[in-house]
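User: Modeling request: complex.
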Amino acid sequence: MSNSKSVSIDKICIGEVAPGCRKVDPILIADGVKRQFGGLTAVDVAHVEIPRGLITALIGPNGAGKTTFFNLLTGFDKPNQGNWSFEGQNLAGMSPYKVARLGMIRTFQLTKALSLLTVIENMRLGAQKQPGESFLTSLIRPLWIRREKEITEVADTLLKRFKLDAKREDYAASLSGGQRKLLEMARALMSEPKLIMLDEPMAGVNPALTQSLLDHIKDLKSNGTTVLFVEHDMHMVRHISDWVIVMAEGKVVAEGPPSTVMKDQAVIDAYLGAHHDTDLGTMSKPASTRSKKGDTK
Amino acid sequence: MDILNILKLALGEMLSPTTITFVLCALGLAVHFGFTGLLNFGQAAFAAVGAYGMVISIDTLKLPLFLAVLMGLLCSIIFALILGIPTLRLRADYLAIVTIATAEVFRYFMTTIGFSKVTGGSNGLSQFGAEFWALNPIPEGNYNFGFVSYRADQLYVFMVGWGAVIIGALILRLLMRSPWGRVLKGIREDEDAVRSLGKNVFFYKLQALMIGGVFASIGGMIFVLNLSNVQPQVWTTNFTFTIWSVLLLGGAATILGPIAGGMIFIALISITQGIMGGLVELGLLPFLTQPDIAQIRLLLIGLSLMLLVIFRPQGLFGNKRETQFNV
Amino acid sequence: MDIALRAVMGRFGRLLAAFTILISIFGAPILSQASAAQTDGSALIITGTVKNEKKPVEGVEFRITGNGIDEIATSNSEGKWLLEVQKKGIYQVEILLESLPKGVGLRDPEANIREANLTVTNTAAVLFPLGKDTRVIQPIGDQIIIRLFAGLNLGLLLAVAAIGISLIFGTTGLNNFAHGEMVTFGALFTWLFHVELKLPLLVAAAITIVLSAGFGWLQDSALWKPLRKRRLGLNQIMIVSIGLSIMLRQLYILFFQGDTKVLSSEYELVVLGPINTTSSSLVSMGLSVVALAFVAWFLTRTRIGKAARAVSDNASLAAATGINVERIIRIVWVMAGALTGLAGILYGLQFQANYLLGAQILLLLFAAVTLGGLGKALGATVGAMIIGFVVELSALFIPIDLKYAAALIILIVVLLVRPQGVLGKKQRIG
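Assistant: Request completed. Predicted assembly structure:
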C-alpha cells in the first residue's frame, strides 16, 4: 500500500528542503503565527507553506500545537500575531464560516456529527449555495427545491462512495465512531473544497475501516483536492503523504518527503527524546487505543 | 363536587386568551430552544416588549391599531438585536443569566415611577382597547358551541388569537422543513461543526432570536388586548418558566408540541385545581384552605418542569427516537 | 477521622431530614388554621400599624394606589390604619411624610413607598418602621458615607449567601436557581422558631442553621446526586433547579402564608457619625465577617477545603489523585446550606422575611458570583461587596426603585466584557 504516485522533491519545493522552505505552488502560506495561553506559547510558526494538489501530513508529539495551529488557520481561534493566506487571499481575522466558504474545509479531532439530524440531512448541510438557507427564500419552496434535488444527488453519490448509503435515514447519533469520521469527511466534501484539513482522521477508527479511509484520502488527491492532515499514526503518514511537516513545542522543526523526515534527527529528538535508535516506522500504535483527548487544548 | 363543571371549566381555559398567549410564547421559545438550542430565560420580556410597544404607540404616540401592532413587532425585533448582538457569542448558561437579568431590568424600567408618564408605572396602562374592540365584526349576543358558550367579544378574541396561532404554526412548519430550519437544527447540535461548513452561525442565531421574539410579542399583545390592560407585574420570571413548562410538556423540537402542550397544560392545572377545590369543600383535605388552591397552580408548574426534564425530556409529542441519544 | 465524619454526617443528615418532614407535616395545619381565621369573609384589606418608640402615632396618612384606585387612609389613636379594596392585585402604599409628627421620620428614609401584595392573601400588612427623622438635608459627603455603610452591609449579606452558589457551581457546574429559596428557608424558619414558638433568638438561629445544613444535604442526596448519576446535562439540571425553586416558593406560601413576617420588632438605634443604624445590623455585619473568615480559613487551610478547591479546578484530575469527589460535593452542599441559611437569618433580621425574599436577591447573587469569577468562592465575596456598593451608591444618582436594575446591568456588562469575572483567569473560559 505504498504511495504509488510519489512526486519528486524539486516539483514540490524551491531550493533546499528545510523547515519553512518555499514551495513551487503553495495553496496556503502562514507567516509568523503565534498563539499564547497565559505564559505558555502553544504555537509559534515562523513560516510554512502547504503545497497544492498533494497530501501533506502535519505530525508531532502531543502538545506540539498541531490542533491549535489548525484552529488558528481556520479562524476557530485568534492568534496573538501573524498572517496567513489561502490562494493569495489574506485570512487573518476572518471568521471560520468565511474561511470555509473560500474552499478551505476542516474536520475535527473529536468528531462533530450532528447527532439528531439524519445522515442525509448532515450531508445536505455541507452543501454551499442553497438559496433556501436564507430566511425569506426558505418560505417559498419552489425557489430552493431544485437546488435541494441537486444537493441530494451529490450527497447520495458521496454516501455510496463512503458506504454510508444504508444509513441514509438514520440519526447520525446511531453511527459508530468510525462511521461518524466517514460522515464528517463526506460532509466536508459536499462543498467541493479546494483544501480539506483533517484533524486526526484515524483516531478512534477501527482497523477494518482504516484502509477504506486511507483510500478515500488518496481519492481526494486524485480528484484534485489538496489534503492537509494531522496524524499520529506513522504508518499512515508514511504510506499516503507526499510531504510531512513536523511540529514540536509550537514550532515547525522539520519538513520534507516522508522517507527523509522519518530519519531526521530533529524529528527523532522531538518524538523520543533520548531513545535515538528507535525506528519511527515501527512506532505505530493500534488506532483504537489512542487517547481521544485533545493534545493541545 | 361537580365533575362536569370542572371539565367544562377546563375546556374553557384550554381555549382561553391566556392559553393563546402561552402557546404563542412557547412556539417562539421552540424556535429559540427547541430548534436552535438557545437558552432564553427572558421570554416574558419579549412578550412584554411587544405588548408595551403596541400600547405605548396607541397611548402616547396616538397611532392607529394596525401601525401600533407593527410598532410592537418592531420593538421586539430591536429588543432581540440589542439582546442578541452582544450575548449570542456567550456560553449557553451565560446567555440564560443575561436573558433573565435583562427581562427583570425591563420590568423594573416599566415599573419605576420615573417613566410612569409613558408606561403607567406599576399601575400600567388601560386606555388603549377602544379601536381593537370597535373592529369586532361579530354581532352582539351569545354563541353556543355545545360545551362552551362565548359572548361576541370573547368569540372575537378567540378568532383573532387562534387565527394567529394557526398562521404562525404554518409559517414555522414551512421554516423548519426548509434548509434554513436545517441550519438551525445543526446549530443546536454543534455550532462549531456548522461554522466549519461555511454557515454564518451568529447571524442564524440572531434571526432565530428575532423570530421567536416576534411570536412572543404577538402573544403579549393578545394578552393585553383581551384584558384592555397592561401591567408590569405580569411579565415575571414565573411567566417565563410557565412557558418553559408548556414547551417541555409538548416537546421542545416540535411545532404541534407547544400548541397541544399549552392546551393540555392549562387543562391539567385547571382540572387539578377544580378537583382539589372540590375535595377541600368536602373537607377531605383538612390542611388546605380555598385560597391555598390557587397556589397549587404554580406549585404544579414547578413540579412539572422538574419531572419533565428528568423523565420525559422529549415531551409528549417529541420524537421517541431522539430520547435514546438525549444528551 | 474521615470515615467517622462521614458516618456522623450521614446519620445526622437522616435525622435532619426526618425532622424537616415532621415539621412540614405538623407545622402546616397549625399555620393554615391561623390563616383561615384571618381570611374569613372575602373582604380584601390593606392594613398596618404605625408606632414610634413603641407608641402609636395618630393621624398619619397613607396613599394607596393601584388597580384603579387612589385613596387615603389615616391611622387612628392606636396607630392602626386600614383600607378595604375590591380587586386582588398589587397595590402601592405611600406614607405621606408631611403627615408625620415633627422630628419623626422613616427608619429607612427611602422606603416611603411599599407594596401591598393581595394576589395571594386577603390581608396585606404594610409596615413603615419609624424612627428619628433623618430626612434633614444631609451634605453629600454624609450621604456617601451612609450609602457606603449600607453597601457594606448589603455586600456582606450577599457574600455569605453567594459563597454557597459559587461552591456548588465550582464543584458541580450547576447554576442553582433554587439557591434563593435556601435563603428564604433560613429567614422563615427563624421566624417560626423565634416568633411563633417563642424560642430565644440564638437557639432559634442555631436550630435553623442545622436545619439549613440538613436541607442542603437532603437536596443533594435526594435530587442532585441522582441526577448527576443519570448524566443529565448541566442545562437540563439548571431547568430542574428552576422547577424546584418555583415549587419551594409555593410550599413556603402554603406553610407560612404570603405575608411579611417581622423577625425583630425590638431594635436599638446606634448612631455613628452621620450613620443611623441598629444594633442588630451591626451584629449581623460582625457575624457575616466571622462567617466569611471561617470559609476562607476552611478553604485554604483544611484538607477538605483544599480538596473542594481541587474539585472546583478539575474534578477528574481531583478524582484521579484519590479525592472522593461525590463526598466533597456532599460536604459542599451541607456547608452551602448552612451558610445560606445563616444569610437568610441575617437578612430576615434586618429586612424582615417573606416567601419571596430569596427569589428577590437571587439575581444579585448570580451577579456577585459572576463578577467574582464563576466557581471561585473568594471571588464571590469580592463580587458581592461590589454589588452591594453598586446597589446602594447607585441610589445617589438614579431613582431608588431602579437600584436593583443597576446591579443587573452591571452583571450584564460584566458578562459581555469580561465573562471570566473580575478575578477569573481568561483561559478558563471555553
